[in-house]
Amino acid sequence: MDDSRPTSGASVHPDAPLGDMPGFPLSGMPETTNMPAVRQPLYPMLAVPLAMLGLIVALLPPLLVTLALRLREMDVASSAGHLSLVLAIGAFFAFVSNPIGGRLSDRSMSRFGMRKPWIVVGALIGYLGILLISFAPNVLLIIVGWSITQIGFNFALAALIAMLPDQIRPSRRGRVASFVSLAQNLGSVGATFIVQLFAIGTAQNLLPSAFGIVFMFIMIAGIKDRKRTERPAETFSLKTLFGSFVFNPKKFPDLGWAWLTRFCLITAQTTATSYLTLFLITDLHIADTKAPSLVFQATLANAIGIVLTTAVLGWLSDRVGRRKPFVIASAFVAVIGLLIIATSHSFDGVLLGELILGAGTGSFLAVELALISDVLPSAADSGKDLGVVNIAQALPQSLVPVAAPAVVGAFGYPGLFVGGAIFGVIGALSVLRVKKVR
Fold it and tell me: How many domains, the chain?
């Protein structure tokens, strides 16, 4: 891809991580040309996905279960509308904070590394938000708590996901990206499993997220983080700050189409995850007290589908050197899963749909993350660019709740899931426009 950003003009070995690119002064990563192939360290290949598992376990309990239950405690009749409001405002702060967190980690000169400080501080801020949600007496404070949670965890997420191009050679990214995707999706199983171990109340609100944060901290402790040894050439200013949210799709069209692909598929996925609890309660007439257990079973079925396809397809995409066919196929599989959920009249149908949806979305996110890493314009801005890409993951979580009440009012929750399936088809077609990656 034609890249207008300044480079050193030196050659880089194709198996060198992005962090090894010349012209980007980082300790432990010498500037050199004709770089020989180096052995990929095993620990980061395991630790980055496992740290992602901990982060998702920390973030998802409110999103999947406890927010809906807390809002139903306050006002059963208005809980769906309140949930949409909470999710929409929280997601706005998610997509604002994610690229800013990525940009700040790119510029960080901490002696502890570029990424780790933002992961640790972000996670602790996120947990403060969960504490506020647990004790909030009204919807307004739940909105504030969820917004703080999204800000903190998205700072952590931006820094953690930037470790993929930092630490992993291109020839290993497909399989490691598949493990990251696997961790993201299995995190929902871990989160809902821990949640359903506790009765509705404070312990259910607080303990699952605490377990996830501690596990993530343990995993990142052994990673040798990148360290910047020279200050960035560009001074940090409002222009730099607002630049965290954009890239030029005319200069970098492959990244633009990859962004649109992710936006559409995450929109499809969000319809089924954020509203599953309310769908079970209102359409399948499940009691509130039984909902956490059934949501766990549904996410477990989703995870089984993920396990059956994700790691294999990530490895296979590395093996054959192709990404797009796998992205397209997995997107259409996810669409089939959504349509099955939409037409289900029993919990067994939901389980089947979740199984197929998991097979599709898990493999999609695995291969598509590797595709995005392959088309990043610059090593120096990898955290920022991945933060912009993560807007495509956060933005649907804001837009879907805005549209959901009207869609559900007109067509019910099945209509919402069908709408998600339509976005899935658009996402599958968008990736055809990516040129640099086959």
Answer: 1
